[in-house]
TrEMBL record:
Higher taxonomy: Eukaryota, Fungi, Fungi incertae sedis, Chytridiomycota, Chytridiomycota incertae sedis
Region (Disordered) location: 403-424
Protein's recorded name: Transglutaminase-like domain-containing protein
Pfam families: Transglut_core
Transglutaminase-like domain location: 213-299
Entries under InterPro entries matching the protein: Papain-like_cys_pep_sf, Transglutaminase-like
Domain of life: Eukaryota
Signal peptide: none
Length: 489
């Protein structure tokens, strides 16, 4: 009797241990820190995933060499599932990926974004290892599309996740977007909200200027944004600056590298429903743009060259070029380089690895040819300059506006010389516009305000906010880059 009771007790004890171990297995062991897609180790259950643009240059070069070696027969303008106006990256997600994307997107796009996101998924995969690999690929694809479609989510430089399950069918996934070794860890959600408002200010100013000139065609709008960015941005490769690879660096600080240029033109173009997407290799970032159901190339960075070793200051258009504005793949630049043969144009299909998770639209071989109306609007850009003395000294109330807005047919007073592009004189000073429409539509009338700070604040509802223009400078923390393998599989 005693032995039977002892046997039952042992069975009960081991059953309790089994239940506890099963319920806590993934919660306490399966914690992921994304560092890099190819550094998978299912023994210690750790991995880190960093967007390629934040990799060290040596790693980017290795990845470039890998792609050239293994994809040398593949055209850089790989055909996509969609090649018309219906193209978008979101439609490349499957029915299990879209709900996860939607939840993450909505959380990130809040005025003060969420840094931790929880969602549930169901799988028929019984193997825990297979589930881990399946989830890994899904999240890599989801975050690739999230980041290349939404340059305003600039504050994600990597993410991590954990999961929990009790039956190996239903899983709770927790995604962390803002951990301690993130480049932007010191930013609170309120800080991010405030910086986004600064970005909105510049965006609205550009849109106001486009409206004032009277530009309506995608061609002219793109050209104006292109010229604005080149004139205002100083190409700056300084890893101690936090924002050289995002739209805050491009639009507010006016200091960035190629990612800032490409994401800024995408961000502004999207306000006009212009289908402008990011294209990127292991070492460069630029844009594909849809015009009349055909796709062309814009590379704002390459049109803002350093000439004879001279970095042109913000406000200068002396090095403004259009050699990479709406071109085709057979375009040959002024230095004799054909686009399709440029090793810096070998496309990547994931933000995090050499995995092929997305597709691009097919790109035209020939350059875009503007029509008569587009050429007429191009002349408006070249001939227009804003009045210089339209400045008030007192801060207005929310509903105050100026009445001396230029009329529709106002004739410009300054005429450029041949081949010269005149950029509005107030693009680079500290005069701002009070825009009162919360839907970001540009009002017919506006007020121009002076400011003595580096922050361009002109909405009355945010006048009392304090912005942080300068964060503590820090380079990418070496702890972000744990171990890099040469085996890109």
């Amino acid at each position: 009797m005693f032995q039977k009771s002892l046997k039952v007790s042992f069975i009960q004890f081991f059953l309790i241990l089994y239940i506890l171990a099963r319920s806590s297995l993934s919660k306490y062991i399966n914690k992921y820190n994304f560092e890099k897609r190819n550094d998978i180790n299912f023994t210690n259950k750790k991995i880190k995933l960093i967007p390629i643009k934040y990799w060290p240059n040596a790693e980017k070069e290795q990845l470039k060499s890998y792609n050239i070696t293994d994809n040398d027969n593949e055209d850089v303008n790989i055909s996509a599932v969609f090649s018309s106006a219906k193209f978008n990256f979101y439609n490349q997600l499957d029915d299990t990926e879209k709900p996860i994307y939607d939840i993450i997107y909505e959380s990130c796009m809040k005025s003060q974004p969420d840094f931790e996101i929880t969602t549930n998924i169901e799988t028929s995969t019984k193997s825990l290892e297979n589930f881990e690999e399946e989830l890994l690929i899904k999240l890599e694809k989801i975050f690739t599309i999230l980041l290349i479609e939404n340059p305003d989510i600039w504050w994600i430089d990597y993410f991590s996740f954990s999961y929990d399950t009790y039956d190996f069918i239903n899983y709770e996934i927790c995604i962390y977007l803002h951990e301690r070794d993130s480049l932007f860890y010191n930013y609170t959600s309120e800080d991010i909200s405030n910086l986004n408002k600064e970005i909105d200010i510049v965006k609205n100013k550009i849109m106001y200027q486009i409206k004032q000139i009277g530009l309506t065609t995608p061609y002219a709008i793109l050209r104006y944004i292109h010229d604005y960015l080149i004139t205002n941005i100083v190409y700056t490769l300084d890893e101690n600056r936090e924002h050289i690879r995002n739209i805050y660096g491009a639009l507010v600080e006016n200091k960035c590298v190629c990612e800032g240029y490409a994401e800024a033109i995408q961000y502004i173009a999207r306000q006009y429903n212009i289908n402008c997407i990011i294209a990127y290799s292991s070492s460069h970032e630029w844009n594909f743009v849809e015009m009349d159901n055909k796709w062309y190339i814009i590379d704002v960075t390459y049109d803002d060259p350093i000439i004879n070793g001279i970095y042109y200051p913000s406000g200068s258009n002396e090095n403004l070029q259009t050699d990479f504005f709406l071109i085709g793949t057979e375009h040959i630049d002024t230095e004799g380089q054909k686009y399709s043969e440029d090793p810096n144009r070998i496309l990547m299909y994931s933000e995090f690895s050499n995995q092929k998770l997305i597709s691009y639209p097919s790109i035209e071989t020939t350059d875009y040819i503007p029509n008569e109306k587009e050429l007429q609007e191009l002349e408006l850009i070249q001939n227009y300059s804003f009045p210089e003395n339209e400045v008030l000294t007192n801060t207005p109330t929310e509903n105050q506006i100026l009445t001396n807005t230029p009329t529709e047919n106002q004739i410009p007073t300054n005429t450029p010389t041949e081949n010269q592009t005149i950029i509005p004189t107030n693009m680079n000073n500290k005069e701002d516009y009070t825009l009162t429409d919360i839907e970001h539509e540009i009002p017919t009338e506006t007020m121009i305000l002076p400011t003595n700070t580096n922050t361009e604040i002109f909405k009355s509802e945010i006048d009392d906010l304090t912005y942080k223009n300068e964060k503590d400078n820090e380079s990418i923390n070496n702890s972000l880059i744990v171990t890099y393998s040469n085996n890109y599989e």
